[in-house]
Design a protein that fits this description.
Layout: H1 2-12, H2 17-32, H3 36-44
């Protein structure tokens, strides 16, 4: 999870044209493909996926 978050941080930092293109396409796809945005949000909130015992409800 830490590596994924660092990757997002690096992707969203700066204004290089290639980064802007990748960000735009990725965000557009995540918003348009049914269920993708919801899955990403559930994982980011820690409500889905493999969690340590202390993190479970």
């Amino acid at each position: 999870m830490i590596t994924a978050m660092q990757g997002f941080k690096d992707l969203f930092a700066g204004s290089h044209p290639a980064k802007k293109l990748i960000r735009g396409v990725g965000m557009r796809l995540a918003g348009q493909i049914p269920g993708v945005k919801q899955e990403i949000m559930l994982h980011a909130l820690g409500l889905k996926g493999e969690l340590p015992e202390l993190a479970k409800r």
